[in-house]
């Protein structure tokens, strides 16, 4: 079983490497704290986003644009309204929304190359880990987020993408928080649930984002999505 479309042909191995280098290197550059570092990362992220749009087919551009808009709205709600995490300068860096789009494109490219067994094993491990962290009181927020992840896997059209994005997002969150690019609160505001920095299931937010993008893409005239539900 593949992801829910024939292929994300805007991304090849070299371009996927550029995305990884941009995310990993960009966060490291931002963490330097120089006055020029964050603007430099902004330019880098938006330039690669522009290149991705240029390489993409019309239906893929629709998905990428929708991802950018949904990611921006989600960041405003989570970082500026809910304030469940704070960026290094207390702002919403301009490189963050296109960074979400780049991670989305990378996830599409990767998920088409992963075996179904890897997805099944990842799902089981995610659920068990979230339960263990919740029972010990270390990360109560992730139990709810894992529920969101399971809903995406069960009812969303691209389960392999969601499983891939969960793992990718966790890796990026660990790197970003280790560098101090952003910091998650020890308790979720309004809820009071304890959580880690980052929450284990932070990737569920990305799964929900990708599900929303998929809904938009399915309505695009040239979209060809085939729902697949392995659970």
Instruction: Determine the number of helices (DSSP H or I, runs of at least 4 residues).
Output: 8
Termini Cα gap: 13 Å
Residue-averaged pLDDT? 89
- Total number of beta strands: 2
Biggest beta sheet summary: 2 strands, antiparallel
Question: Which strand-content bin applies to the residues?
Answer: under 5%
Helix content: 55-70%
Q: Using the CA coordinates, give the radius of gyration.
A: 17 Å
Element order: H for helix, E for strand = HHHEHHHHEH
Category by helix and strand content: mainly alpha
Low-confidence stretches: 223-231
Q: Strands across the major sheet, in which order?
A: 1-2
The gross shape turns out to be globular
Question: What does the model show?
Answer:
65% of the residues lie in helices and 3% in strands. The protein has eight helices and two strands; from the N terminus they run αααβααααβα. Helix 1 (13-30) runs antiparallel to helix 2 (37-55), helix 6 (141-155) runs antiparallel to helix 7 (159-179) and helix 7 (159-179) packs across helix 8.
What descriptive keywords fit this protein?
231 residues; 2 strands; mainly alpha; 8 helices; two-stranded antiparallel ribbon
Secondary structure blueprint with pairings:
Elements: H1 13-30, H2 37-55, H3 58-81, E1 85-87, H4 96-111, H5 116-135, H6 141-155, H7 159-179, E2 182-184, H8 203-219
Antiparallel strand pairs: 1-2
Quick summary:
The protein is mostly helical. The protein is built from eight helices and two strands; from the N terminus they run αααβααααβα.
């Amino acid at each position: 079983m593949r992801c829910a479309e024939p292929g994300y042909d805007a991304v090849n191995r070299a371009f996927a490497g550029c995305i990884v280098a941009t995310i990993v290197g960009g966060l490291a550059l931002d963490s330097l704290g120089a006055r020029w570092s964050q603007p430099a990362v902004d330019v880098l992220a938006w330039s690669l986003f522009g290149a991705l749009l240029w390489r993409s087919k019309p239906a893929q551009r629709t998905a990428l644009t929708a991802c950018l808009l949904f990611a921006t709205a989600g960041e405003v709600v989570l970082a500026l309204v809910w304030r469940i995490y704070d960026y290094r300068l207390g702002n919403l860096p301009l490189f963050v929304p296109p960074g979400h789009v780049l991670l989305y494109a990378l996830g599409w490219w990767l998920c088409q190359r992963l075996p179904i067994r890897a997805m099944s094993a990842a799902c089981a491990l995610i659920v068990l880990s979230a339960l263990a962290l919740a029972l010990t009181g270390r990360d109560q927020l992730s139990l709810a987020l894992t529920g969101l992840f399971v809903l995406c896997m069960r009812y969303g059209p691209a389960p392999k993408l969601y499983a891939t994005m969960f793992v990718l997002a966790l890796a990026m969150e660990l790197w970003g928080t280790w560098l101090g690019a952003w910091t998650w609160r020890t308790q979720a505001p309004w809820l009071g649930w304890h959580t880690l920095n980052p929450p284990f299931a932070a990737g569920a937010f990305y799964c929900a984002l990708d599900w929303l993008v998929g809904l938009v893409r399915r309505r695009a005239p040239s979209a060809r999505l085939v729902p697949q539900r392995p659970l």
